[in-house]
Amino acid sequence: MKFCTALCNRHDMTPTYFLDSFLCFVCCLAISGSPLLSAQETKTERPWLDKSAPLDQRVDSLLAEMALEEKVGQLTQSNGIGGEATGNTKNLVADSALYELIRSGQLGSILNEINVTTVNEFQRLAVEESRLGIPLIIGRDVIHGFRTIFPLPLGQAATWNPEMVEQACAIAAREARSAGVGWTFAPMVDIARDPRWGRIAESFGEDPYLASSLSAASVRGYQGDDLSNSDSIAACVKHFAGYGAAEGGRDYNATMISPSTMRNVYLPPFQAAVDAGVATLMCGFHDVNGIPMSVHKQLLSNVLRGEWGFEGFVVSDWDSIFETIEHGSSKDERAAALAAAQAGVNMEMSSPCYRKNLTELVTSGQVSETTVDELVKPILRVKFQLGLFEQPYTEPDAAKILLSQEHLDAARKVARQSVVMLKNESSVLPLDKTILKKIAIIGPLADAKRDQLGTWIPDGKEADSQTPLAAIRESAKNNEIEVLYASGLVDDLDRSTQGFAEAVATAEQADIVVLIVGERANISGEARSRATLDLPGAQNELVSTLAKVGKPIILIVQAGRPLTIGKQIEAVDAVLYSFHAGTMAGPALADLLWGIESPSGKLPVTFPKSVGQIPLYYNHVNTGRPPRPYDFAKDKRVDDDFDVELGYNSNYIDVGPYPLFPFGYGLSYSTFTYGDVELSATKLRSGEILAVRVPVSNSGKVAADEIVQLYVRDLVGSLTRPVRELKGFRRIQLEPGETSVVEFALPVSDLGFFNNDEERVLEPGEYEIFVGGSSLAPKVGTLEIVE
Ligand code: BGC
Fold it and tell me: Which part of the chain is the Fibronectin type III-like domain (predicted)?
């Protein structure tokens, strides 16, 4: 390779490397338009480096130069040397071999390496020492923030605020790119209807419409307008498809999903990401109806690429190609590589099936080289789009932006909107600073720094976390309110009641108790399924013991999933439910307690009363024997309350069929009044749009946000249809006394659905329309679809 010789002739990691590079860059640019090569070489020997050439032409010209082994190399991803290897195969290669693999052009990507010096050294080997100089793409799980941690995705979903989710992802991208990360394995958009499944924490909840809207928002946030921007990273929508349906909520378990359910429930958030231009997609570990997703040709090739026109690349999950052997779907690594390649998986994460077998599979004629070419092309395309050929290196000092005040402020805002108020008897909240003299803060999570952050935060730091105890202390200071503290339990799993006496004594001295309980961060997330959903340890006993003291209790629950806390809710005066809310969890909760902002989150997932009711989700189909209609205000049974007179209906005789809290539910410090809803038509045809207009007023005393929700029900269908389906939502801000008219434009085509022949149909007939502040919204009219 010929370098610019005017100012420098080397591109290695000397102490003056960046200065040299900069001078060289300017010089080369002046000469040729490429920082690394002369103009003539750019155009002739390496035409793919010509930035002005069309993308496909750049890809094709590079591909034409690649040897088969180099192509297979692009399909191969290895763990970095800083990351932890898990799973069955440990990792593709030993650390020492990694360098050689890169140098020989036989590695396309690295994950879990965020040491900037190491990342730059890897890139140098790839760009300057490998034959064709193809840069690596560096991947990392940036799931809900990089260093500034935002609420768990489930908490972000509780905001029902796509703009805010987009902003959170953009901040995560900016921070990650500054550390050399070009690609995140997010968003996870698996529909999750089972809170036993630990990965519900990483999801946007149970509803395809809400999840689709947040899926697209996340992709926009991570990727920005242009992947080559210095603050954009490639997104990876995962885990295609249906992973959340794991039987029994047990992680990695098999799924049985009918064709119509796959299309109507599990696929829409993936399609939304593809429509938003997502660069990559990850297939799941699980099998769907007997076929592991890593070899699922129908979904990966026919649907994803054929029907949806996805042009990015598919990465396997960690070892998931290899694990098709354990599934009993592939006989050995060679068969696994063959099946995955034929299904359309472009890159293998961690395990070595492609690297060890794909070259031979081509030379023996079992896989055509054209198939390999088609797998390589989208990977090269994304690398070109990221601008890696022009700028493979990361400036080591760019990390200055981590945890900037702007990022912390944004995290605090998202955290505030992610909290859902489930109860506020006698308006005990917000706390009144003018009356209170002493507050008791009690509970194992009140000062648990790490647990505020939640699962999947490889780059989050415990030290950055601001706990509720610290934040309440800080905010009480100016008003001379005394804050007392007793944890009651050593941690959330503690079963000993030894600390209860101190907790009771602390409560007795105070005017009010703020009791902070829940799940630690690492009992939700991957491989963290639970068979029970009670507060762990002796936390239930702590709640009931403190309830006997007779002081008002505000219960704050921090968890990665819905918990079965009906009895605990009965025992206290107010409840704020917070999915682990991130670095700024404490300040955000303090803001809500003091009424600086009203709680405004709404549940993105149904809360069951009991584990035995699961799966329990609002958009279920009806049975021929539905239970008596749901009356949320009266339905107070928690458990052990047998009613054998319910009749031969679809019921549970002990807890009833209905949830503790329905999807879309959440209270505010204010109240909202919905006026008469106007529908623009009572009859429409395919292609037309229904306008739904509703005046919503803030009838309370404080400014607050409401999330206005629109649901429909298709009364008669060729398949049984859900009793309700979300079709629109809007977050609005209202001052006291203010009214806003919310307008939804509902295209009639949105009322169509997929049948079991996987055809999308729009069926004539009656559709009920519901508008309100939760999935219990009242019926406001009927629309007839005519042919
Ligand atoms: C998870 C993925 C993750 C990958 C890489 C796997 O265990 O299922 O969601 O992106 O590891 O860390």
Answer: 706-775
> Using CA positions, which residue lies closest to atom 2 of ligand 1?
317
Residue type present at position 497:
T
Q: Which residues pair with 515 in a beta bridge?
A: 442, 555
Q: How far apart are CA 23 and CA 341, in angstroms?
A: 43
| Ligand 1 atom index nearest CA of 87 | 7
Q: Which atom of ligand 1 is nearest to the CA of 239?
A: 9
Catalytic residues: 317
Contact 315, 236 (CB under 8 A): yes
628 band by pLDDT with thresholds 50, 70 and 90: confident
User: Is 185 touching ligand 1 by the criterion CB < 6 Å?
Assistant: yes
Ligand 1 mutation target, pool 185, 222, 455, most atoms within 8 A of CB? 185
Assign residue 197 a region: left if phi > 0, alpha if psi is -120 to 50, beta otherwise? Answer: beta
The distance in angstroms from the start CA to the end CA of the chain is 67
Class of the CATH-defined domain 672-785 = mainly beta
Q: What is the DSSP string of 542-601?
A: HHHHHHTT-S-EEEEEEESS----HHHHHHSSEEEEEE---TTHHHHHHHHHTTSS----
Topology of the domain comprising 138-391: TIM Barrel (3.20.20)
Tell me if 287 CB under 6 Å of ligand 1: no
The amino acid at 562:
P
CB neighbour burial string for 564-601, b if at least 16 within 10 angstroms, e if fewer: bbbebbebbbbbbbbbbbbbbbbbbbbbbbbeebbbbb
For atom 10 of ligand 1, which residue has the closest CA? 185
C-alpha 317 – ligand 1 centre gap (Å): 6
| Residue 526 near ligand 1, beta carbon < 6 Å | yes
Instruction: Say how many C-beta atoms besides its own lie within 10 A of residue 729's C-beta.
Output: 21
Tokens of 298: 């129908």
Q: How many Å lie between the centroid of ligand 1 and the Cα of residue 322?
A: 14
Distance 140 CA to ligand 1 centre (A): 9
- Alpha carbon distance 124, 775 (integer Å): 54
The predicted-structure confidence for 527-563, as pLDDT tens digits, reads as follows 999 999 999 999 999 999 999 999 999 999 999 999 9
Instruction: Band the pLDDT of 455: cuts 50, 70, 90.
Output: very high
Edge-first strand order for the sheet with 779-786 is 683-685, 779-786, 765-772, 704-714, 725-734
Distance 543 CA to ligand 1 centre (A): 36
Give the CA distances from residue 252 to residues 197, 281, 287, 309, in Å, rounded to whole numbers and listed in that order.
10, 18, 9, 28
What is the token pair recorded at 550? 């007779």
pTM: 0.94
Nearest CA to ligand 1 atom 5: 318
Q: Where exactly does CATH 3.20.20.300 map onto the chain?
A: 138-391
For 706-760, what is each residue's pLDDT tens digit? 999 999 999 999 999 999 999 999 999 999 999 999 999 999 999 999 999 999 9
Instruction: Provide CATH 2.60.40.10 ranges for the chain.
Output: 672-785
Instruction: Give yes or no for residue 319 CB within 6 A of ligand 1.
Output: no
- What is the CA(243)–ligand 1 centre distance, in A? 13
